Amino acid sequence: MDIKQMHEKPPYGMIAILFIGAFIAFLNNTLLNIALPTIMDEFAVKPSEVQWLTTGYMLVNGILIPASAFFVTKFTNRRLFIAAMTLFSIGTLLAVVTPNFTLLIVARMIQASGSAMMMPLLMNIMLVAFPVERRGSAMGIFGLVMFTAPAIGPTLSGWIIEHYSWRTLFGLVLPFAVFTLIYATFKLRNITPNREVSLDLFSLVLSSIGFGGLLYGFSTAGDKGWSSPFVYGTIIVGALALLLFIVRQLKMNDPMLDFRIYKHPMFALSSAISIVLSIAMFSAMILTPLYVQSVRGISPFDAGILMLPGAIVMGLMSPITGKLFDKYGARAMAIIGLSITIITTYYLSKLGMDSGYYYIMMLYTVRMFGISMVMMPVMTNGLNQLPMVSNPHGTAMNNTLQQVSGAIGSAVLLTVMTNRMESRGKDLFMEAQANGMIPASAEKLAVFEKQIGTQAMLEGINFAFLISTIVAALALILTFFIKRVEPPKSDLGVDKVKTNSVK
């Protein structure tokens, strides 16, 4: 089958298999977060140790996603998907039966080694299988998987943990993973063009230290503090390794991750907007539950329910925004979507101690609606400017930057929140002391200090949301420079590029 024939009749059945695999892999990313306290109690480990279940997963993703351009270019999509699903299934099975905590960490890392390939592989297949004028609709459906699965994870996890063992979280995913693997073995065929490339091991080492160091350093800053030598030392080492990695890639004829794709202005612009938007989006996913649970005292399950409509709206809107992108382009959608995001984020910065549950739900849902109009259209518009041979590098770059910017943005905004909370806590206590409002009894003093702490946290969260509003406004300014683009016709290779259809 050549590209022209495939564009006339895209392989929907095969893409459905990939969607199922990607959905369960993305769902698994956030499924375990609410279960961490339960696992900590069962295995008698410290919070700093149990955190490795998410940190280790994230680090493996941070190491493998930048290398995904090499894997997608060298190996057929069938071989790569089956290998990824096999690793994911083995890791999931190991997590169900693990007798100790160390093996559970290993299981999560094996899972991550499989899931890291899912997003880049699926995005590349979508870019090959659909013509430019229909890519928006296709990538919109992909957005449904990309955004909905991680968002419903905490809600589903909260309900399961209340009624069953944490092992059920993995037991629930395993049958779907095995079914997808078996089905793919018999039905999946190859459609992505491949060529012989070699992996530069030194580039892989630099990439692993660079992206892994930055992800780990920023992610642990909230726990260990920015003054910890381990935190800033890891970030410095990561930044230096990343700089060396970029310089090396620019000098190589066949780089592991091609930074020369940034010579395409719309791809560079889409990356900048996506980075800023990822910071705003991921920070809200942390700040909102913090407000709901720590300030308002609402249960984790109800906090998950509060965020669920936003996930559903984003999922439902992704295919719609994809079709709108095909018709109107990214610029108008991004301007409207970011305007909605800025307004709702600003109102989230005005939350009080008595803000209604459904009012918060409405703000969060409308905010996610706004983000759904921006992320995939902007990303697709940038990828559209790349020649086909650069697609693996474009998708790898986008996915890597999303991971890194999300981790960095969340860490920075949590630090902003913490610093504001501490300074306001001191100010409120001094004001109360000056007005003679400090209770005399130890019992009343403890209650009073808790009230001050809660009020200080509220003001810290509100201030972080205000900074997030400014960050989103920066993205809005960038969207005015978006232009609708298509890949160079000479690079499409409609008549020349053939794909291997062997099962």
Radius of gyration: 23 Å
Strand content: under 5%
Total domains: 2
CATH fold field value of the largest domain: Growth Hormone, Chain: A
CATH architecture level-2 label of the largest domain = Up-down Bundle
Poorly predicted runs: 490-503
- Taking the alpha carbons of the first and last residues, their distance comes to 13 Å
Q: Identify the CATH homologous superfamily of the largest domain.
A: MFS general substrate transporter like domains
Count of alpha and pi helical runs: 21
- Overall helicity: over 70%
The structure class reads mainly alpha
Shape: globular
Strands, total number: 0
Average pLDDT figure: 82
N to C succession of SSEs: HHHHHHHHHHHHHHHHHHHHH
Question: How many strands, what sense, and barrel or not for the largest sheet?
Answer: none
Main location: membrane
GO molecular function: transmembrane transporter activity
Keywords: Cell membrane, Membrane, Transmembrane, Transmembrane helix, Transport
Subcellular location: Cell membrane
